[in-house]
C-alpha cells in the first residue's frame, strides 16, 4: 500500500517551475544527495555533532566544472547562510565556505544551464528548498528507521522511501571489507526532473554512466542482500 501525505501533493505544485527545453548540452535529471554525518566521519576521521541527514549536494546528471570563470561568492547567498550552515554543513571544516565553493564549481555551474538555476542564489536556495520538502530525516524517523545498534534490511529502508515518495531512491553504503557481514548506510539520493517533479533514480542519466561509484566520497550502491547498519552519533 502506498503511503500518502500532503507533501506528495505540494511537491508537484510548489517545487515546479517553467519546463526546461532539452538541448544536447542540457542535463535531464537532478540528484538531491543527502549524507549521514556519522558514516561520513567514519571515513574521514572527523567528529560530527550532527544527528540528522545533511545535504551533500544538488547534482545535474550532465557536466562537471562547466564554467571555471564563474567564481563562488558567498555575498550572493548571504541570506541563505544560516540555513546553509545547519542543513549543508562542511563536516570537515565547519567554519569554511570551501565545501559550498566546491559544489558550486563542480555542479552548480552545470545546473545553471537551466534558467531556473542560473545564479548562485537560485541554485543554493533551490537545493535547500528541495532538502526541506523531502525531509529525509523526518520521514525515516516517522517509520521507525532510526540510528541504532540494530541492523535493518536494505528493503526496509528502500521500501519506506519508495512508498512515501512514490519514486525509487538510490541508497549508498560503505563496505568495510569484501567479506564483511554488514554495510554502513551513508548516502541517499532523491531524483528530480528538470521541472523539479520527482523521478525514479533508476531512470538512467549521464551521471549514472560516469559515476556508478562516488569515488570522491567512497560510497557505492548498497548490497541488497546484506544487513544495513545505520550508526548513531558516537
Automatic annotation (TrEMBL):
InterPro entries in UniProt: Ribonuclease_T2_eukaryotic, RNase_T2-like, RNase_T2-like_sf, RNase_T2_His_AS_1, RNase_T2_His_AS_2
Under the heading Gene3D superfamilies, the entry gives:
Ribonuclease T2-like
Q: Does the keyword Endoplasmic reticulum apply?
A: yes
Catalytic reaction(s) noted: an adenylyl-uridine-RNA = a 3'-end 2',3'-cyclophospho-AMP-RNA + a 5'-end dephospho-uridine-RNA; a guanylyl-uridine-RNA = a 3'-end 2',3'-cyclophospho-GMP-RNA + a 5'-end dephospho-uridine-RNA
UniProt-annotated catalytic positions: 56, 103, 107
Task: List the Gene Ontology MF annotations in alphabetical order.
Answer: hydrolase activity; ribonuclease T2 activity; RNA binding
UniProt keywords (A-Z) are: Disulfide bond, Endonuclease, Endoplasmic reticulum, Glycoprotein, Hydrolase, Lyase, Lysosome, Nuclease, Secreted, Signal
> GO cellular-component terms in the record?
endoplasmic reticulum lumen; extracellular region; lysosomal lumen
Q: Which residues form the signal peptide?
A: 1-18
Write down the Pfam families for this protein, in alphabetical order.
Ribonuclease_T2 (PF00445)
Query: Where does the UniProt annotation locate this protein?
Result: Endoplasmic reticulum lumen; Lysosome lumen; Secreted
Q: Which GO terms describe its biological process?
A: rRNA catabolic process
Q: At the top level of its lineage, which domain of life is listed?
A: Eukaryota
Grouped into one coarse class, the protein's main location is endoplasmic reticulum
The entry assigns this protein to a family as follows:
Belongs to the RNase T2 family.
Name the record gives this protein = Ribonuclease T2
Q: Which organism is it from?
A: Seriola lalandi dorsalis
Classification lineage: Eukaryota, Metazoa, Chordata, Craniata, Vertebrata
